[in-house]
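fyi for ur records
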Amino acid sequence: MMDLPWPTLVFAAAVVALAYLVYGLTGFGASIIAIPFLAHIFPLRFAVPMMLLFDIGAGLLLGLRHRRIVDWRELLRLSPWLLIGMSFGLSLLVQAGERLLLMLLGGFVLTYASWSLLVRAAVRPASTGWSVPAGLVGGAFTSMFGTGGPIYTIYLARRLPDKGVLRASISLLILCTGLVRLVMFTGSGLYQQPNLLSAALMLMPAAFLGFVAGSRLYARLPPHRALQAVWALLILGGVSLLVRSYLMG
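which gave:
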């Protein structure tokens, strides 16, 4: 597994466990938490497809279990724009330089985390027209970094007031986009990288344990309380990626 020292592997396992604890709480957010920190020890083209395998597993555990309360109408409204955005994002992931990808990811994470931590405005219903930019932008960042979930979550949260329906719908959407990305990544050769599957196998228990812990906390802990600490951590991760991309120049 890439000859990484054990402290590095322990760090990666801790990051993955934290990411899926949040996923168990909210139904989304694993990649946007994990990728900024994993990018310091793995290339992005390695970390993104590896995290995808965990997303699919978590989606199967959560999304299919609650599929009866999924709002299919909203998911179908997003789907065509997501597919277009994902195609564009994949081309960037495969062709763009690592420095540009780190800058895009760092800027995205820093902006989203700062907004989530600071904004306290009341949530108002969104019109269906917002499905177009949410799908295009969310799809692009989903393919590039697996971090598009928060974008279409912002849209769906303003369309689905029921917390359970929102969580189930987001989880199933992440599963479906994950399966599409799996086909795209396989076709583009990303899964032919040496040691990728073995690294995923070694870190899978951390993802599972984090997911189980988050699912058990779901009914006991208000998710927004836990996420406030996570967003603060993400600001640090976003800044570190921007600094790293600058030093690469």
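The chain has one domain: 6-248. thats all i got for now
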